Amino acid sequence: EVQLVESGGGLVQPGGSLRLSCAASGFTFSSYSMNWVRQAPGKGLEWVSYISSSSSTIYYADSVKGRFTISRDNAKNSLYLQMNSLRDEDTAVYYCARDGGSPRWAFDIWGQGTMVTVSS
Amino acid sequence: DIQMTQSPSSLSASVGDRVTITCRASQSISSYLNWYQQKPGKAPKLLIYAASSLQSGVPSRFSGSGSGTDFTLTISSLQPEDFATYYCQQSYSTHTFGPGTKVDIK
Question: For residues B102 and B106, what is the distance between their CA atoms, to the nearest angstrom?
Answer without folding.
Answer: 12
